[in-house]
């Protein structure tokens, strides 16, 4: 096999691996958004409607469980997902996208750093859930019933998903760097965002 043939095969291999990693980013992002939707549909929204109707939930308690950042997180991640989908489809069709994957993540870097506020609050959220388990049986029974509707996802398991998501971004983007051409602007963008987006989130 000639050196030229080996180089072409290596390039095709890297391109294929790159697309696979991009698809994994998209697939996991879609799953993440689904879990945020379950959180809203089966826990946050119906529980808010019970404030003033049921003694087991009050506005202060609700605010301890559901932070306002969740609304922003869900909205912005939905926008991020749709931009990434558009980029992926163009790359898969061998077209030049308006923005690279790296540029898209860099664009959302300030928002992703904003996850830090939610991370810092999560221990308090967890403590609130533990207190509910021990001291608020009516609410715990309601949460247990909702879990059956929410694809068997417990409230705590859904609330922790933003905490788990950002390290996952870093892991996948680090993998993406390995299969991006060293002379490509895409490498610069992706490599930069692995060092920029997540510095305050680890």
From TrEMBL:
The lineage of its organism: Eukaryota, Discoba, Heterolobosea, Tetramitia, Eutetramitia. It comes from Naegleria fowleri (Brain eating amoeba). One of its GO terms (molecular function) is guanyl-nucleotide exchange factor activity. It holds the Pfam family RhoGEF. PANTHER family: FACIOGENITAL DYSPLASIA PROTEIN, LD03170P. This is DH domain-containing protein. InterPro entries: DBL_dom_sf, DH_dom, FYVE_RhoGEF_PH, GDS_CDC24_CS. SMART domains: RhoGEF. One of its GO terms (biological process) is intracellular signal transduction.
